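User: Please predict the structure of the protein below. I'd like the answer in C-alpha cell form so I can feed it into my own downstream comparison script.

Assistant: Understood. Taking the following sequence of 445 residues as input:
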Amino acid sequence: MSRRVDVVLGVICALFALEAVFLAPLNADAGYYLRLAHAHAGGAVPCRDAPCYYAPLAAVPLALAGGEPTLSILVMQVAVFGCALLTFRLARTLGYDRRRSTRTLLLSWALLLANDGRGVVIEPFAVACLLLAANSFAAGRRSGSFLLAGLWVALGFWTKQYALLGWVGLLGVSLWEGKLRAAAAVSAGVILGLGGGMLLLGLVGVETTGLLGLVRAGAYPNRPLWENLATAPEMVGAALLVLALSIGWVDRGPSSPNARLLAAMLLAALLPLSFRGYRHYWHFGIPFVVLLFGSPPPPTPPRWVLMAHRAATLLLALSITLDLFRCIRDTSTDARFQQRAAAERLTVSSSGFARPLYLGDPSLLALVRAPILAPVDVGSRLAPFGSDQANAVLAAADGVVWDTSWPGADELLLRLSADPAAELARRGFVRARTDGAVHVYERRK
C-alpha cells in the first residue's frame, strides 16, 4: 500500500468511528450490555446481583460510562482503536519495520470496525488481552514472560470466555517449537488467573452454580459450519489465503517463528465459528490475519504467493467496502434517530409501571432503561430465554409492553406456551390499552 492509501484508510477509520458514536443504530446486544453496565455502575456485583450470561467482566468497562449509549459506544471505539495499537505493538515485537507496522494498525482498525465494531460488542476487550498475551509470548525469553502471557489469556476469559482459546494457540506453538517450559509457564499463568478469579467471585458471594455456568457450553444452538462461515465469506477467504501465505510469504517460510505463532493464534481464534457464526467473532482473528497479510515478503516470492496476496487484498478491501455501504445506509435513514423515537413511544406506553417487561426490538432496551428483572432467580445460566428465566421474569414484572410488529418479540412467551396472549392471561395480565402495534398489559389487581 502507498502512503496515499494509508491516509485514505486512516480517514475512513476515523469517519467509521465517529459514525459509530453519533449516528450508527444500536445493535441487539446493546440492549443487554448497556443495561448490565448501568447496573454495575450502580454497584451491582457481576454474577451475584446481575446476571452473567457471559463473563463477569463483559460489561464492566462500559460501566465507566454508566451504560449511557453514546458514551458507552465511545468507550467501545477506544477499545477498538486500542486493539489496533496493540496490533502495531505486536508487529514491532515481531520485527516489522515502523511503516509496515503502521499499516497493520490501520488495516486492523478498519477491519475491526467493519465487522460489527461500530456496535456494542465485548470482543475488543478480550482481543486486547490476547494481543498482550501474544506480545508477551513473542518477547519471552524467560519463564516470567510466558507466565504473563497465560495471565493475559485468563484475563481475556473473564471478559469473554472464547478468549480461553488463546491458550490453545499458545500451547500449540509451544509444542510445535518444542518449548515445553514455555507451555508449562503459559498453562500455569492461565490456571493461576482462572483460579484467582473464581476465588475472588466466591469471596464476594457468587454461588457455585454461578461459577460453573461460566464454563458451561450451550449458550446458543449449534448451526451447520457452512452457515456460520457464510456470515462473513470474504473474511473466510482472506483467512485461508493468509494461512497459505504463511508458508511462502513470511521471511523464511514455514520455519519462521512469526508464522508459527500467528498461524496458531489465528487457527485458535477461528474455533468458535465451528458452532456459531457472528461477524464480531472475527475480532479474535482479525489482528492475526492482518499480521500474516502484512508480513515482510521474501526477496523472490513465487508467483502463486503474489497472486494469493492480491486476492487477499481484494477480499479485505471488500469487507471494508461492505461496511462503508452499511454506514451510508444507516446515516441516510437516520437509524439512530428512528430508534430514539421508537424508544420514546415505548416509554410513554409503559408509563405507570415500575418494573415493565418489554417485548420487542432488543436494541431499544437500553434507550428505555428497561430494568433487569429477577436477576437472582434467573442466575447465571447461559440460555437467556429458557423456561426458568421466562417464569422468573414474568413473575417479577408488573406490566408487559409488547410490540407485536417486531418479529420474534414473543420469543420469551413462546418458551412457556404456544399461545402467548393466553399465557399472559393465565398469569394475571390483562390488556389495558393498545397503541398501534404496541399492546400494553397490566397485572390484574
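That's the full C-alpha cell string. DSSP finds 19 helices and four strands in the chain.
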